[in-house]
Amino acid sequence: MHIVEHLIAGRWSAGGDVSTVIGPHAGAPVANFPAATPHEVAAAVAGARAAQPDWAATAPAARADALRAAATAVEQATGELARTMSAEMGKPEAEAAGSIAAGVGTLRQYAELGQLHAGRTLAGDLGATDLMVREPRGVVAAITPWNDPVAISCGLLGAALVTGNAAVSKPSERTPATGWLLTRTLAPHFPPGVLSMLAGGAPTGAALAESAVDVVAHVGSTATGRAIAAAAARTGAKALLENGGCDPLIIDTGVDPAWAAQQAALGAFANAGQICVAVERIYVHADVAEEFLAALVKEAAAFEIGPLVDLRHRSAVHGQVVDAVDRGARILTGGTIPEGPGAWYPPTVLTDCTDEMRVVETETFGPVAPVVTVASFDEALSRATRSPYGLAATVLTPSMSNAHRAWRQLETGTVKINAVFGGAPGGAAHPRRGSGQGFGYGPELLDEMTATKVVHLESPPGGW
């Protein structure tokens, strides 16, 4: 079992009340972790503040070299990180290793981009020099989730550090050992205090968000994101948020139902549905609905997934399924809590769903595919946009006209046509409404981690 510690101003410690992570596979203890006290939060931020100026003064190429070395160290630690991630949140080890590889790639991407991230000169008077200079914001608080704890942390921390900020990381209380191991792997490659880590639950995250930091970067629930935005409004920090989603999948007439079912199963059941851009609601044209549902049931029966993160989350997921059935939905497969230990829950397909059901209107974050049958593509588009979220959407259609209509009308940060996952590296989007604000990944994240200063230089009378 892992014994998690805080990293504060370059020193490891284990203060605060201790809690235990219970693994989702068999219900066995995985890690003990302390909850950082307000004093420890303040000390971590103060240590980061003290270390940041020298780190900002370090040459960009040297900061990039440090990030490259850190990426290599994470790559070499993949086995231990994957085993720990799987033990804490249920992702199969092979999939966990894949997500760690994505995190390594992100660190290396930012190492290359960071040293090229510069301002520009402006065309002013001939006797003057005008510059737009990018400078680090200062101290970045990174509050990260449990569903992809390494890749997301690598993105936020990598972008913060390579641009000259100091960072204080607060991993989820559901995956504290994974966050601790990642920090132990990254931290030796940076000066003491440049990277700190605080363990703990919601009170620790709230204390960090309300502390004297310059950026609060959060990936997680909409409710927590809104609380962070309110705290940032009080302190003046920049809030960078990727929050919940309830992503629609639209299936047009003329689509191959078997292929559509494969796409829907991948979008709804991968990582047991615990993905920010998972398919959360499906609008299928009546022309293909019957064949699609039959194929989706077969896909669900064959889809292999790990357990949900814990019993509390399983209870919430199952509660949405029960609520839908009480309101008239039918279970075609799954929908029952299996006997035995662990937080397992089967891939579940619901039909006869309506937009008023919680499983359709809110984020489930589990392996549940609620299906709504519609009479036309127009109806599907209209119903898909009725949401307080705006993270991503997917459309499966053989019609180029409908594809263009969809990406123009869907009010989400990302629209995917004929593929539930995928996209070129480096793409970044702004989430909408309850799904957050700001760029949380891609080259634009470097812009978020820096502030632009305009400099106007003129020589004094008589010259320099």
From TrEMBL:
Any GO molecular function = oxidoreductase activity, acting on the aldehyde or oxo group of donors, NAD or NADP as acceptor
- What name does UniProt use for this protein? Succinate-semialdehyde dehydrogenase
Q: Where is the Aldehyde dehydrogenase domain?
A: 19-455
Matching Pfam families: Aldedh
Keywords (A to Z) from UniProt: Oxidoreductase
* Listed PANTHER family: ALDEHYDE DEHYDROGENASE-RELATED
**Gene name in the database record:** gabD
